[in-house]
Amino acid sequence: MRIRLLAVGAKPPRWAEAAFREYSRRLPAALKLEAPLIGLSRGHEQDRRRAREEEGQRLLGRIGRGDRVVALDGQGEAWSTEEWARRLAGWQAAGDDLSLLVGGPDGLAPSCLERADLRWSISALTLPHALVRVLVAEQLYRAVSLNANHPYHRA
Question: What CATH number does the domain containing 80 carry?
């Protein structure tokens, strides 16, 4: 299974990149996690909508053909770790690849939300994008561990 964590943002700080790499390293070889950064569109305040749409078009262009698409959105569904693990197991069993979309400072473009099969809220808090990447990688590792009955997940 290939998972694309597609996030709009700048280069993450070293601590975040190290944490992301650590959790990615722990994933089984059959699960490939890619996390390309999509550059920010910068403009004047009145151009925020246009910038968000440009970012959205770049995100949409990186989605794999046939991927199941999940938008990380504060208005989305809150999933427990167990629910995330169940969904992941189902997608793996179906042979689905996955693209997770993370918007820039102004959120995801409407075109990205429309393209998404599901909307997932990982927190009611507003989080820095570097931390979102770490949290998603950790929860991915946790879900894989849970599905494999590995002791990493102790609820």
Answer: 3.40.1280.10
